[in-house]
Design goal:
Number of helices: 23
Distance between the termini: 84 Å
Structural class: alpha/beta
Largest sheet: 10 strands, mixed
Number of strands: 20
Shape: elongated
Strand content: 5-15%
Radius of gyration: 34 Å
Length: 706
C-alpha cells in the first residue's frame, strides 16, 4: 500500500514538473517509468518522510494536490471494490458505467429464441443498460466467446434454456453443458459474472420438468457467478405466460434499482457436493429447488441475510402458475398464441381450434393438381378443409411442421367449446379464405363456386384432435353435413380410439419402430408412451374401419429398423400404409435439415423392402411423387387385379346415416389408372392427375413425368 501510495503521488508531482515542457505523452511516460523507481529508492524513510520535499522546485501546493490525487484514486478503487463485492451498480444517466448484457438462449423449438429477442428489446428500451447482445448458445461458442470472457467483462448474462428429451440439455446447448460439467473448474471460475436464468419446459414431463434450467442456475452459482434475479420458469402449457410474468417483474426491478444480487443467492460452496463443485442434473430435484424463488439454506449467510429484498418480487405472488382463482377451466389459446398462429396463417375458432388453407386446395382451385389424398383416395382437394378441434398435443416431435408453437398436454384441462360452433365457425372461416382466391389468375370459376361446398375435412392440421372431449359429437356433426372425416392420432390414447364412432378414414402416426427411437423422435409426455403406442395400434386393428398407418421417414433417424415396422404392421393390420418423406420446415435452429429429407426413390425402395417383409399381404398401390409419398395397401383392396383404394364418399355418408353395421368393403371405389403405381423407373406421371396442368416453379408446363 505504501509503495502504491508513493508511486501515485510521485506520478502526480512529475506530471506537474513536466507540464510546461514540450513533448509527447510517450516522452512523459518514459520519464515517469525511469525516474519514479530511482526517487523512491532514495526515499525509504516511510510515509511521513515521502510527503516532504521530493524536488527542490516542488511547491507546497503541488504536494497537496498530489496527496488529493492519491486520495481520489484510492477512494475510487475502494468504491469499485465494494461494487464488485455487493453487485449493486448505479446507472449513470449519461450512459457511462451502464451494464453490458448478454442474453443467451438454448432450445430447439424457437421459443427460447423468441423470448430472448423479446426480452432483449424490452431491456434495451429501459435505457438502463448498454446495447444488449442476443445470441444462441451455439452461436456464442462458434464465435469463440466463453463464459469466462463475460466474467472478465463483469457482464450480466441472462440464460433462457429449455429441457430436452429425458431431462437432457438441448443439442444447441451441448457445448455450454460440457463447460459447466468440467470438473477442473474452481468455485471462482465465473467470479465477476452476474446472471439470471429462465427455464422452459412442460410440467407433464413430471420429474424432468425444467431440470436443465435448474441445473444451469445451480451450477452457475457454484462456479462463482452471482444471481441478479430469481430464476424464472415457463410451463409450455401456459404458452409463454410464465415467462412474461417473470419478465414483467424483472424489468420492474431493473427500472427501480438496476442489477443487484438476489438476497440469499450467494454462490454455493464447493463442499456442498462432496467437495467437487460438480452437480448432476438429476440431483436438482429437491422441493426447495422446485420453488420459483431460490433461497437454498446452504447458500445463505449472515451478510446476505442482512441485504434488503424490498426490490424483489415473488413470482408466485404475481401469478406464475396462471391460475385466476375462479376454479374455472382456462381457455387454451392465449392472446400471444392467437397472435402467433394468426401470423402463420391460421384462423382461430373459439378457444382451442384452428383452420388453415392448404396449398393443394389453392393449387387444385387453379387446375394445377391435387394432393396425395386426391391420388390415393379420390378427394377433391379444392373442397377439402384442413382443421383441428384441438391445438394441443401429447408429443413434441422433432419434425413437427408447426415448430412447437402449439400447447402440449397429457389430458384435456381447458375450456371445451361446442362442437357445432367449431364446425360452423371453421366452415365460415374456410369460405372466407377461399373468397380471397377470387380473381387470382388461373382460378377456375366452376371450382371456385364448388369450393364453397366443403366435402372433406382433414383433422390433421396440428395437435391431437382425439383428446377434444366432444370428438365423437364433432365427427357425427361433420357426417350430418355430408363432410368426410380423415382423423389422425399420435397413438397415445388407445381408450379414445376404442370409443370413436366410425370415421371415413382413421390414421395413427408410426414415427419409429422401437421404444428408443420413438422417445427420441416423438418426445412424448407420457412415461408409459411405448405401451400406449402398442395399445393404440391394437385398438386400431379392432375398429373395423378404414385404417391407415402413417410413417414419416427421416434419414438417419428411423429408416433402418424395417423388421420392427413389419412387426407393428402385423400387430395392427391396417388397411393402408402411407409412407412419406419428412418435409423440411425450416426454422431458426431446425433439428431436421435437408440432409435428413429422403428422395422419392429412397421412399419407394423402403416400401418395396417393407412389402417383402410382410409377405403376400401388402403391395405398393399408388404414389404421389410431388409429395414424396407412397401408398401400400392390403391385398384385399386389389380385386380381380385392380386396385380399389378410392372411397365412395356418398355411399359412406349414406351408410353412416342409416346407422346399420357396415365395413370397408361397402364403400370402395376403383382407383383410376393414372393413380396406380407402375414401378420404380417406369415412365409415368408419378401419381399426378392428367386432368390437371403440372407446372414448374418457373411457370413452365411439364409435358410428361412428375
Amino acid at each position: 500500500l505504501h509503495t502504491a501510495s508513493r508511486q501515485v503521488r510521485m506520478g502526480s508531482v512529475l506530471s506537474s514538473l513536466l507540464s510546461g515542457v514540450d513533448g509527447s505523452v510517450v516522452v512523459i511516460t518514459v520519464l515517469l517509468a525511469v525516474l519514479a523507481p530511482l526517487l523512491l529508492r532514495s526515499n525509504k524513510g516511510g510515509k511521513k518522510e515521502e510527503t516532504k520535499k521530493i524536488d527542490a522546485n516542488q511547491t507546497q501546493d503541488e504536494a497537496k494536490e498530489g496527496a488529493k490525487d492519491y486520495r481520489r484514486t484510492a477512494a475510487k478503487e475502494r468504491t469499485q471494490q465494494v461494487r464488485r463485492e455487493s453487485k449493486v451498480f448505479k446507472l449513470d444517466s449519461n450512459g457511462e458505467g451502464l451494464d453490458e448484457v448478454y442474453i443467451l438462449h438454448g432450445g430447439m423449438s424457437g421459443n427460447c429464441a423468441d423470448f430472448a429477442e423479446e426480452l432483449g428489446k424490452n431491456i434495451h428500451a429501459t435505457g438502463k443498460v448498454s446495447p444488449t447482445t442476443v445470441l444462441s448458445l451455439e452461436q456464442f461458442y462458434e464465435d469463440g466467446m466463453t463464459m469466462k470472457s463475460l466474467a472478465r467483462k463483469n457482464a450480466v448474462c441472462i440464460l433462457i434454456v429449455a429441457t430436452y428429451t429425458g431431462g437432457t440439455p438441448p443439442p444447441t446447448a451441448q457445448a455450454f453443458f460440457d463447460y459447466l460439467e468440467d470438473s477442473t473448474h474452481t468455485k471462482t471460475e465465473l467470479a465477476g459474472l452476474r446472471f439470471a436464468v429462465v427455464g422452459l419446459g412442460h410440467k407433464d414431463y413430471a420429474t424432468n420438468y425444467n431440470v436443465f434450467g435448474r441445473y444451469v442456475d445451480k451450477r452457475m452459482a457454484m462456479l462463482g457467478a452471482k444471481r441478479v434475479y430469481t430464476r424464472g420458469e415457463d410451463d409450455e402449457a401456459q404458452l409463454g405466460e410464465g415467462f412474461r410474468v417473470w419478465q414483467k417483474a424483472f424489468l420492474s426491478m431493473l427500472e427501480r434499482a438496476g442489477f443487484k444480487k438476489v438476497a440469499g443467492a450467494k454462490s454455493a460452496n464447493a463442499g456442498s457436493n462432496g467437495g467437487s463443485g460438480r452437480v448432476k442434473i438429476g440431483e436438482l430435484q429437491t422441493e426447495e429447488e422446485k420453488k420459483v424463488v431460490i433461497e437454498d439454506p446452504e447458500e445463505s449467510d449472515d451478510e446476505s441475510a442482512e441485504e434488503s429484498d424490498d426490490d424483489l418480487d415473488d413470482l408466485e405472488d404475481l401469478g406464475l402458475e396462471g391460475e385466476d382463482g375462479s376454479g374455472e377451466a382456462k381457455e387454451m389459446v392465449t392472446e400471444s398464441l392467437r397472435k402467433n398462429l394468426t401470423k402463420q396463417g391460421y384462423k382461430i375458432i373459439g378457444s382451442h381450434s384452428g383452420v388453415k388453407l392448404c396449398r393443394w386446395t389453392k393449387a387444385m382451385l387453379r387446375g394445377r393438381g391435387g394432393c396425395y389424398k386426391h391420388t390415393f383416395y379420390g378427394i377433391s382437394s379444392f373442397q377439402c378443409m384442413e382443421m383441428t378441434p384441438s391445438l394441443a398435443c401429447a408429443n413434441k416431435c422433432v419434425f413437427c411442421w408447426r415448430h412447437h408453437k402449439n400447447p402440449v398436454g397429457r389430458e384435456w384441462r381447458w375450456k371445451a367449446d361446442d362442437p357445432k360452433m367449431l364446425i360452423d365457425g371453421a366452415i365460415e372461416q374456410h369460405r372466407g379464405m377461399m373468397k380471397q382466391m377470387k380473381g387470382v389468375p388461373g382460378v377456375k370459376k366452376d371450382r371456385y363456386e364448388e369450393s364453397m361446398n366443403v366435402k372433406h375435412c382433414a383433422l390433421s392440421l396440428v395437435g391431437e384432435p382425439i383428446i377434444y372431449p366432444h370428438i365423437n359429437e364433432f365427427v357425427g356433426y361433420l357426417h350430418e353435413k355430408n363432410i368426410s372425416s380423415f382423423l389422425v392420432t399420435n397413438a397415445q390414447f388407445p381408450e379414445l380410439i376404442t370409443a370413436l364412432p366410425p370415421v371415413t378414414q382413421l390414421y395413427v402416426s408410426i414415427d419409429a419402430s422401437n421404444e428408443e427411437d420413438l422417445k427420441r423422435i416423438d418426445r412424448p409426455l407420457f412415461t408409459d408412451f411405448w405401451q400406449r403406442f402398442l395399445d393404440s395400434i391394437e385398438a386400431l386393428g379392432k375398429t373395423g374401419q378404414r385404417t391407415v398407418f402413417r410413417l414419416t421417414l427421416v434419414k438417419g433417424w428411423n429408416m433402418d429398423e424395417l423388421d420392427g415396422y413389419a412387426a407393428l404392421v402385423k400387430h395392427g393390420n391396417p388397411c393402408m400404409i402411407e409412407v412419406k418423406g419428412v418435409t423440411y420446415c425450416g426454422g431458426k435452429k431446425p433439428v431436421i435439415g435437408m440432409k435428413e429429407v429422403p428422395w422419392h426413390d429412397e421412399v419407394i425402395r423402403f416400401c418395396s423392402e417393407l412389402a417383402k417383409l410382410l409377405g403376400d399381404e401388402y403391395e405398393i398401390a399408388s404414389e404421389h411423387a410431388h409429395s414424396c409419398c407412397v401408398l401400400l395397401a392390403r391385398k384385399d383392396f386389389k380385386i380381380n387385379g385392380e386396385w380399389y383404394t378410392w372411397i365412395d364418399f356418398d355411399k359412406f355418408a349414406q351408410l353412416e346415416r342409416e346407422g346399420k353395421p357396415f365395413d370397408t368393403s361397402d364403400y370402395l371405389a376403383k382407383t383410376p389408372y393414372w393413380a396406380v403405381y407402375r414401378g420404380l423407373g417406369v415412365d409415368g406421371d408419378g401419381g399426378f392427375d392428367p386432368a390437371e396442368v403440372h407446372m414448374k416453379r418457373d411457370g413452365s408446363i411439364v409435358e410428361s413425368g412428375c
